[in-house]
Amino acid sequence: MRRWWWHSLNGQIISLMLAALIIGQTAGFALSWSSRNSALKVAAQSEFISRTATLCDVADGISGNLRRDVLLASATAYTRFWTSVEDPREAGRDWYTSARAYLLEPLSNIIHYRLSPTDPVSEAHSAQLVEKKAFAGWSPLETGLWTCQSPASVLPFEGQIGMGLAAQLSDGSWLNAVFYKRHQPDTGLMASLSSTLLIAAILCLAGFTSAQRIARPLRALTAAARSLGRGEVLPALPESGPSDIRDLHVAFNQMQERLHRFVADRTRMLAAIGHDLRTPLTTLRLRAELLPDTDLKEKIIRTLDEMQQMTEASLNFARTEAINEPTRNIELGALLASLCDDLAELGLDVDYIDTGKLSYRCRPDAIRRAVRNLIENAARYAGKARVSLAQTRGYVEIRVDDQGPGIPEDQFELVFSPFYRLEHSRNLQTGGIGLGLSIARAIARQHGGDITLIPNNPGLRAVFVLPHL
Fold this sequence. Notes:
By secondary structure, the chain is of the alpha+beta class. Among the domains are: 2-181, no CATH class; 326-467, Histidine kinase-like ATPase, C-terminal domain (Heat Shock Protein 90), CATH 3.30.565.10. It contains 13 helices and 12 strands.
């Protein structure tokens, strides 16, 4: 699941969309929350200052029970107003205690002009008002919202939505006002979260649909490229989908056509060269037969025979590449077992180690020919060959082991060159033509694989590597 999420096109597109949505919404929520709290605080405090300024003017014109009644009637769930003889600015932290007592008194009790025992729940809710925080102290209130003739002083509540106000009335008493409001939960948060989840689901669906529309032709292109790498002849890919995908399909079809044309041209050229060499070789043989010197005649004829066999081998190689063998599914283990049995009947000492069944899509005649060349080389130089089939991560390996003298490691690549022979006597009976390994590697690479040589200590291991389908 993790591999799909991080490496697939669907996973990457959906991840990027969700990451962008989460980052954007988180930033939006943070800004909105900060702006909301600031706006609520400013609005609440502005309303409190305006109300207190109005009460200050009203209280200045009345006295006694009427003043008390007006101040009590002006109280709200978050504000209280009262008068005191002493200057509240000199009370220090004790002013908090008085303000708290007024705030804890329910409005119903205030209307009936009596105090009641503090409610434990209310006590806990308003405890923050008298927390042991740094006492900011009173300072002059400087704002255009204060319209009362008497100047006011303000006591801010650090980190909270609230403040205290004090203003001296004309009779020398002091008007006290307190405002305190706890942070309220954002009722629109769940609605915003629900809409965000809905948007995320829509984005995931849209991203998955878009990715599928892009990935489907890409998967078809991947399968076609793998088949082309195995030498299969494919029909042209349909040029559909977005413009970029269509351009990619057009480029792939053109590349496939050029590759097939290049291979066909090279094969025809090689066949033409091999065919045209037959005439001069036949002419030279006829003329050599007329030579009076017997020793010289035999040497020339041996050389001509070698050239004739090399020409025939080149023609066979060209014909092999020109044959368009269809690709099909086979049981690879059964093919190898059958090949080893056939070579054993011809007198070669070859063993096959059965490692179970393995279905593989290939050109079976070509695979059979390549493995036969490897086995014959091992039997020729080591006397015995052992064949096995193994599966590694992403690959299928056909291993041909021998315990012969081996070859120097610096010649591991040279032996795959056309007409290269380790046996330098040029004896066709012992060294062959030198095309066997070249043909085997060509077949392996036509299937998208390769052939490598590994020291076997003693002997040599030839590994026919094929991509796992």
